[in-house]
Model the fold of this input.
Amino acid sequence: MIDIAILGLLKEHDLHGYELRKRLVELPGSRPAVSFGSLYPALGRLERAGYVKAVTHETSPTPAAPMSGSLAGELAAFRAHRQSAGTTDRGSRGKKVYGLTDTGEQRLHELLVETEVADDRGFEARVAFCHLLTTAERLALFEARRGELVRRRDLANRPTVADDGQTIYVRSLLERDAAAIAADLAWLDLLISSERARKDGAGNGGEQ
Amino acid sequence: MIDIAILGLLKEHDLHGYELRKRLVELPGSRPAVSFGSLYPALGRLERAGYVKAVTHETSPTPAAPMSGSLAGELAAFRAHRQSAGTTDRGSRGKKVYGLTDTGEQRLHELLVETEVADDRGFEARVAFCHLLTTAERLALFEARRGELVRRRDLANRPTVADDGQTIYVRSLLERDAAAIAADLAWLDLLISSERARKDGAGNGGEQ
DNA sequence: GCATCCATGTAACCAGTTACATGATTTG
DNA sequence: CAAATCATGTAACTGGTTACATGGATGC
Done:
């Protein structure tokens, strides 16, 4: 699911691996820190697949507006640019600034709407870039997640087979888990209702 | 960290793989369900390491008291026993009931007190069997976890580098994460204080 | 006697990790 | 010029997963 994060970040601006990783770590859900050993191979894979591509010269000096935010990104791109366009062609090991291709953009959207994978980290990664979705798609994402959480909750406080000598610690742990799921569910419901409001906001004001 | 769970469950009673797995799934922190493809190889590994051992005949028909709880476990052991000791010798593929060896018990304790690995699942697995620890060891486990959570919290609401155009979704996600950590911390603090009370309970009644 | 669960295992794969090797650039 | 940081990458390993192969026992 590192793919979502990479494609999502590259959608915002072109970046090289090192910088990409710094952003990756401070993205919700990518604990404890995605390592270079997984980042670079992933970039290579995405490049081979045609989703990203090394942008060497001034293909896109990050259009215009984005200068407002993210100085670091601009700087990285600028420096890389200067280096490659400047002297010769950059030695074997220079910065390699990646950008999203058209198919990469498609791929990102594809990954974002894929509700099958109910994985926690995957969900967080999707939410982090869900502003790229339509309201309906976002709603679908949230509701799929909701289903998953409900499933987990029901699974948790069901039969309790063979739980004879549960220690107080296990019980406490189970309670904590239940509380965490409940809190998550409440959070999701808020998101969902706000999304619903957005959807049929202008049209009609029914259904909370 | 499947090792902790396996050893911990086998400490309670001898079990064969299939039954073990059923218990494993309803253990907190072993989402979404440990698969056979990881369970059996793990058992093999633990057996080769000498931590567990297949108990075939009446080596230990689960001593005496444990009959009180866990009917399923007793049944499984009994059936396996009957089968092996009963007819011939059981075909190539019969139930294989595993038990914990002495070194396995040591190993379990070792894994339980190992506070280095700050992994979430690892922590849950340890708590699930922390009744096997002394109060002091348990306290150390909880406090190590607390340190880890504090570290995460501080990491989360620090610099916020390059967070220019954070969408409402990312912000919401970060808030949720922060709330989850706070809740976890509160839960832990409760555990810790109750553990402290237990420790110096008889001696003096200070410090809540 | 057929389906279904119980039961054990292997093989191929997956998504990541750590440790290592390498080198360029910046800064004190 | 040395140390720190930036930067890219490979190799070996980890801790699992799914899919597959196999077969015994039970229930209807």
Chain B touches chain A at residues 12, 22-23, 26-29, 31, 68-73, 124, 127-128, 130-131, 152, 160-165, 167-170, 172-174, 176-177, 179-180, 183-184, 187, 191 (CB under 8 Å).
